[in-house]
Amino acid sequence: MGTQGLQRAWRRRMAVAVLTVPVAVAMAGGAAWLRAETSVGGWALLFWVPILGILLGTSMMPRRTLVAFATFFTAFVAVAAADRAVEHHVFQGRAEATSCLVRDVDRRVEYSTSTDANGTTTSHTNVYYDYDLACDGGRPTSMTLGHRPAGRGERLDVAFDPEGRLTPRPVDDVTDGGTALWVSLSCLGATVVLRGADVFADRRRW
């Protein structure tokens, strides 16, 4: 391959390195917005098919193994945090608060496994608490959390989406999504810089 061919190949690799993950992050934010603001509901999760395709398809693109592993992690966090940031921001904007009596709490344990891009399988254990609520005004009647802020017979201030699109949560857990946005942008920046530097380092070999 001549010098011009090498330059074209380098430019293509650089474009993939710096543009693909920002596209995935934007798609994740868009999917969260559709889920929160429109009636498409769970159909917005279909956006995660190309998002995961981008993450997995570019996970081993860096030639340096350490960069590949590090940027796969930062890219995934950037995407997940973007989804969380948008969802929390929308929820805070229209949530209503009410006082609820906890009628019952069921502890539920779920086990799952996942396999990464290198074929390594990892087991996961998740604990959930299913709340049965009696709230002032009648809503909400239930919610599921990953922690236990109150027990049976106690009262809890709960925020809920009057449109019913987003899940209820304790008032103390409501945020504007700012922290998640910062995490997303920081991980996105780290991914782009590391992958771009990996590609740029190869050009210096010419």
UniProtKB/TrEMBL annotation:
Keywords: Membrane, Transmembrane, Transmembrane helix. The chain crosses the membrane at residues 14-34, 40-58, 65-82. This is DUF3592 domain-containing protein.
